[in-house]
Each structure stands twice: as C-alpha cells, then as structure tokens.
Amino acid sequence: DDPTSEACDHRVVSPKEGVHRVGLYPPGSGGAVCLDDGREPDDLVALAPVLEPAAYPGRMCGAQDDLVGITLEGGETLSASLVHAPEHGSLELAIVTVEDVELDQATVNQGQLLAHYTAVSAEAIYVRVRSQDPAARLSYDLELVSQVSHCEPDALEPNDSPVTPPSFEAGVVSGLEICAGDLDWHQVVISE
Fold it and tell me: Are 74 and 181 in contact (CB under 8 A)?
C-alpha cells in the first residue's frame, strides 16, 4: 500500500480510487512466488483458451506469453486493448495467427496498448500479451471488442464467378463495393 517503498502502513492505498488487485505472497518469498491468472497454461497457441469479446483480468509472471483465441467472421474487426501500470513493468500486445505471425502489433494510445485486425474471411486468430522480463510480476486488463462492418453489395451482384461476370465498355464505372469475403468478377469489352 506504499507506492514509494516496500513499507506497509496499512492506511495508504495508491491510487485512492479505482479497482485494485492484490497478490499476497508468503513472508520470505522474495518475489520468487507469483500467482498467475486462472487461464494458465496459455503460453502456446495450442493451449490458448478461445474467448468471446469481453474484458478479462490477467497476471504476468516472468518472461512469458499469455495467449487467447477468438474466432472472427469475414468483415469483423477485433480491437484489443491492454491496460497495466507501466511503472510495474513492460508488456507487449499483438494479434497473431496460429503460426505466431504478427497481424498487428500494438501502439500506445492514452496509456493503453491497442491492436486491431479485420478478418477478410472467417478465421481463428490469437491475442498475445508478452513480457520479456524474467522478474515481471504484474496485473493487466485485456479488453476484446469485435465489430462487424455492414457492407452492402453493389448493384452488379451476383458476380462472384468468372462464368457470368457483367460486361463493361472501357471507361470509368463508379458506385462499386467489395465486401469482406466477396469476389467480384468483371468482363471488359474492348472494341478495335
């Protein structure tokens, strides 16, 4: 309860308002003990729990990854935000594929780490929280928000196949729209 030292006066809480998490460790543990969050083991994609969009508390113990999976539909955008106390340590946030290829790495926005990804078609992706610090002992909040973009197909649908594409004369055609997961085929007629 004392932000400036390890002294405990049983009266001071910093910050004065808000939600607080407390990790209680046995005397003499010297930081060697860390209570991880309840989603462990979640250090590998194969072990990552699949979650719904919501807010989740987490706890980082040492240099490790915490991964969660989420399934997106075509055109659905995932926004992941990570909040933690930077003075307690450094965390990284990324959205990755099953092969751990980064689709987006977080940027800092008003003290939060934010990452976004829009799926072209239905797919499973993963949100990775990473610590590079072997001594890390910190709590964080991860919020997953998904949003489906409403895309109206253009007047030339159905043109999802090269078998029956609409024909155009050479020139400019406006008012066309392509939606996530959609294919549009067009035939251009060129007269000599």
Answer: yes
